[in-house]
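Backbone geometry:
***
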Amino acid sequence: MKMPAREQTIHIHNRIHRTFKAQPVTYGIPWPQGVYGDVDEFAVHDEAGHAMPAGSTVLNRWPDGSIQWSLLDIPLDIEPSASCHLRVGPPTSPPPI
């Protein structure tokens, strides 16, 4: 039996021609049943693999109690017309304070 995906990638594109520093970004993430039971079990990582500060909230749970939907709040630095890819999955290092 195939294991459900424990990682997801968020693709963000700045369509505005100005730099954003610590721009609040809110993003909903759907999770397969049984993957995560608590928001402390996953983290957001930048393209270099570094943990990013992020707030996570459970929006809905599967019947087994695992997370079905989570909402992420991330302060993002992004250049004009740039794109970035963030990985959401198991933590590889402690998140910054």
